[in-house]
Please model this.
Amino acid sequence: MIDQLPLVSDAEGWPWNIETSPDIYSAKIQWPKITIVTPSFNQGIFIEQTIRSVLLQNYPNLEYIIVDGGSSDNTVEIIKKYSKWISYWISEPDKGQSDAINKGLVKSSGILFNWINSDDFLAKECLFLLGKSYTPDKDVYLMDLSIVNSDDSKIISSYRQKLAKDISDTIVDFLIAQPSSFYRLEIIKKIGGIDNRFHFVMDLFLWVRYLLEHGQRNIVLIPYSGASYREHSNTKTNLLADEFENETLAVFYFVIKLLRNRISIQEEFSNFTLGLNKQEIVTVIAKIRDRHLSLLKKNLRSRKYELMFKYFKEYLKTLY
Model:
């Protein structure tokens, strides 16, 4: 039973103590198996909250996997503390977050899948609401996201996922929140897993890759919080914002090459059926071009010439 988890004093305010009552899970419902993977590396300060936020969902058909990259802090000690409730865990050197997620995918057997990073945490009743919304004919389930302060977990802002009317806007504006985005596991495995070339925007590439093949018709919006993203000084998007944007540009260039049929069949993640019609293809390329042109002009006005030339090069790639 989950209520046998190691006790933590409420006075400590740490880690996550919010429990979903097991009584809300009706025995009359066949709850879909949900797999959650937590990639981790030296996040001992946060990971216990992450683990408890998953386990205290009390979800009756949960597969929870932790893939640690050989942490040198107290991460492994914390994982061992909860090991009897974890389906599988390992701690060994890896090639980064994407590699860790792919290791977890190999061990995954659920119907629905997501990864939750070791400094983020699921919202109360997230898995209950997800399982209740599941239908076999849908592929992706998008929930809302809260952004919280690292010191006190108070909500700084909230993010409601949405789909644009035009799929080109959905692709180019990438209105997604990975911790609250759940996919059918078979879809991710068919795609080929997570692209190890990306260390920052692997979620964007997965999202765009899905949309290019399947469009928006099999996506469900669940208007409740699914997870909280922790904002702190060591977040990769804060520390390495330039690398984040460079990978974003690489995703868009992949899209351009794909839509113009310039992807080698030997290239990874290229073997799939494009689901866009001719007009949608033209519009997506135009929206990517507009994005790059807008950033080019912005950096020109700011006299950031190095960035201006970077976006100018990307803009040219959309022309030919």
